[in-house]
Specification:
The protein is of the alpha/beta class. 31% of the residues lie in helices and 17% in strands. The protein is built from seven helices and ten strands. The chain has a seven-stranded parallel β-sheet with strand order 1-10-9-6-2-3-5, sandwiched between helices. Strand 2, helix 2 and strand 3 form a beta-alpha-beta unit. The longest helix has 18 residues. The structure holds 2-amino-2-deoxy-6-O-phosphono-alpha-D-glucopyranose.
Length: 241
């Protein structure tokens, strides 16, 4: 595990973009695992800038997003699908046919999740999986108690996660369930980059680094991955330096 502490969010986002850019230069049809949330806003801004500066070409890149709220689709502004199109897909030349997101409005979540796992396999697996971390140590929506062997599935959101994300649901009830890649799915990526910025992540980062792999803090399972890079800003790293 490599831990890199950057001066600020901008530096952290730019470093992560550099790693992604190098991967795409090495392999034009790289498969990127993408995340959502406030942590990803500066990253996608930076990737969009690099694309506009013609330093990166996404035309052959395939993407797979980690999760989606159960019951939402891209027509709703609170959905992760909408966030992704607005933050990255509409601003770069990622091709529609190469974009993969879980369908939160599926009538058959088991089939949706199994199909997703097969799509990832058919794509040759994920080259770089970008992750944020929830304040309770979740990755994607793998909440405390999630098994290291979990695959893409329907998950129940904890009250902490609902509290943390309620701010995005001003005019509608926040879903209590989501479809999420599992921990085993995430760990099968060739490389994993965990991003955490801001003082509100300093406690969970300290716990993550000090704890042995435990399902109580699902992010700790990432420590068993042989190519994990943790990128922090100084605020998220304040309790470990
Ligand atoms: C949500 C997402 C995660 C994300 C986490 C942190 O739960 N499912 O993928 O990492 O929130 O979000 P933020 O970056 O807004 O703190």
């Amino acid at each position: 595990m490599e831990i890199i502490i950057c001066e600020d969010v901008t530096a952290g986002a730019s470093l992560c973009s550099e790693i992604i850019m190098k991967q795409i230069k090495k392999k034009k049809n790289s498969v990127l695992g993408l995340a959502t949330g406030a942590t990803m806003v500066p990253l996608y801004k930076n990737l969009t800038k690099i694309y506009k500066d013609k330093k990166i070409n996404f035309s052959k890149v395939k993407t797979f997003n980690l999760d989606e709220y159960f019951g939402l689709d891209g027509s709703e502004k609170e959905s992760f699908r909408k966030f992704m199109y607005d933050s990255l897909f509409k601003k770069t030349n990622i091709k529609e046919q190469n974009i993969n997101l879980l369908n939160g409005k599926t009538s058959n979540w088991k089939k949706e999740c199994n199909d997703y796992e097969h799509k990832i396999k058919r794509a040759g697996g994920i080259d770089i999986q970008i992750l944020g971390i929830g304040t309770n140590g979740h990755i994607a929506f793998n909440e405390p108690g999630s098994s290291i062997n979990s695959k893409t599935r329907l998950v129940k959101l904890t009250s902490q996660t609902i509290r943390d994300n309620k701010k995005y649901f001003k005019n509608k009830k926040m879903p209590e369930y989501a479809l999420s890649m599992g921990i085993k799915t995430i760990l099968s990526s060739k490389k994993v980059i965990l991003l955490a910025f801001g003082e509100n992540k300093s406690k969970i980062i300290k716990k993550f680094l000090e704890s042995k792999p435990t399902k109580n803090i699902p992010a700790t399972f990432l420590k068993s991955h042989d190519d994990l890079t943790v990128i922090l800003d100084k605020k998220a790293a304040k309790l470990i330096t």
